[in-house]
Predict the structure.
Amino acid sequence: MKTKQKIINQAIESYNRSGVTNVTSRDLAQSLQMSHGNLEYHFPNKEAILMAIYKQMKKDISKVYEEKETAADPFLLFNELLLSLETFHEKYSFFNLDVLEISRNYGEVNALLKKTFQVRKEQMTLFYERFREKGYFEEEIIPGLYRRLQHTIRILITFWNSQQEVLPYFAREQKGTMSTYIWELLLPHMTENGLKAHNQLVNKKKVKV
């Protein structure tokens, strides 16, 4: 494995364990048993490390958002996306936990974040359009309802790890994954056909309830 990738992997592990602000480049160098100067040769500062991690994250998550079978049921594809996001967030848990700190202090990373959020918004919108094309959703009772619902789900995805840290008592009392909560937000808006498609996923144990 190349030195740069070793540094990236160690940074992810250290940031996940201690948080971005609590890990210095000297800490990383020590954990890798290399000199601080050698580490700075590859990554001159923390933002350079975060940029490298973010590019790796972007590559990983882009694969998750790509639809493998456009003819497949959109609920099945959406559920696969949610399950993949849970795994992705576990791998890079520090990023969502420290997203506000990162966006405030690292301008280059923040600029990429904003561009990526816009792309993800458009990709998620395509899913909802397919839901409606399939007749899985009722008509909006309030104009703009489904756009706001999409935004609510984006908030939940982004801050899922944070709420588990801040509200651990609730996480213990209310068992459920991120996917469970998102499906429960969608259920009240489903048509009979939508509920039938959702139940098929539940019966096949694709959806956790």
In short: Residues 55-203 form a domain with the Tetracycline Repressor; domain 2 fold (CATH 1.10.357). DSSP finds twelve helices and no strands in the chain.
